[in-house]
What does this fold into?
Amino acid sequence: MGWSFKVHGGIALAMSATALLLALLSWVPGMTLSLTNVDWLAVVVLMLPVVLAAGVRVLLTGSDKKTLWRAFWCLPGRLQATLGVLFISGFALFFMGMSNDTRQQTEMIKDGRYYVFDMTTSKRAVVEVPRSQYEKVAREDQRPMFAGFTWLCAVSAFGVFTAGELRRADARSGSVDAAT
It folds into this structure.
């Protein structure tokens, strides 16, 4: 596998592991990761090129799912385990985060006052809440986002590493065919 595949896959793995850590931290009581809308935009802007490039690399292989899966089994065992843990953890945490029965979403902080969008009554409205309630709602909002980023980056790393493995195998079989 070429160095560019290793670097690209390593970046995707690092992003996935970081997002998993943040997702797990959002479950710790009292821990609030205060990401504003601008911060979320920065996360998406940084993640988007990695994910899109991984998709392009997979498409350029021209392989089907079965071939990609076979290439995955040719990867080193530790890498397979890491990808599997990140994929399953991201998937599980995403659905655990989505399954909470919160009917509130963070709205804004203005002049030291905390507001959430409340959907508990038939009259949906923005209401002021204490800081502790706002932090609780913010944690619950962030859980599925971080878990989704974990899963998406793990899938990207899978795609990059399997594409690299397929390219390595193609280059090797091409040199064998040329020698005969």
